[in-house]
Write a structure and sequence with these properties.
- This protein is mostly beta strands.
- Helices cover 0% and strands 51% of the residues.
- It has strands at residues 3-7, 10-13, 18-25, 34-39, 46-51, 58-60, 68-73, 78-83, 92-100, 111-114, 118-123.
- The radius of gyration is 13 Å and the shape is globular.
C-alpha cells in the first residue's frame, strides 16, 4: 500500500520560508515521478512543482518559479519543496503526489497517489 506522509506546513509571514517534506512508502521510488499540488479555498487544485523519474528533471508553475525548489533524497524516499519569499497568495493546502504513469503532469488526474495535505498559511 502506497503512503505519502507530508510534513512541514505552518504559518509564516510574507517573505518567510517553509520546507515541505513528503516521505513515500510502499512505492517504487524513483520510478514514476513525484510532485506537489496546492488548493486554496474556493479555487481549483493547481500543480506547483514536479520532479521526473528517473531523470530528476524539475518543472515549476510560473507563479512559483524562482521562489520554490523541489528536490529529493532517493535514499530516504523523500521529496522536498523549499518555499522562499512566500506570499499571501501561496496560502493553500499543499498535497504531495506520486505515480505519474503517463498523461499531463499538471493534471491531478494523471497522478495515482496522494498525501493527506498540509496547510500553508502566509500572512501579510
Amino acid at each position: 500500500q502506497v503512503q505519502l506522509a507530508e510534513s512541514g506546513g505552518g504559518s509564516v509571514q510574507a517573505g518567510g520560508s517553509l520546507r515541505l517534506s513528503c516521505a513515500a512508502s510502499g512505492y517504487t521510488y524513483g520510478s514514476h515521478g513525484m510532485g506537489w499540488f496546492r488548493q486554496a479555498p474556493g479555487k481549483e487544485r493547481e500543480g506547483v512543482a514536479f520532479i521526473s523519474a528517473p531523470a530528476g528533471r524539475t518543472y515549476y508553475a510560473d507563479s512559483v518559479k524562482g521562489r520554490f525548489t523541489i528536490s529529493q533524497d532517493n535514499a530516504k524516499k523523500t521529496v522536498y519543496l523549499q518555499m522562499n519569499s512566500l506570499k499571501p497568495e501561496d496560502t493553500a493546502v499543499y498535497y504531495c503526489a506520486a505515480g505519474l504513469y503517463g498523461g499531463n503532469l499538471w493534471y491531478g488526474g494523471s497522478w495515482n497517489y496522494w498525501g493527506q495535505g498540509t496547510q500553508v498559511t502566509v500572512s501579510s
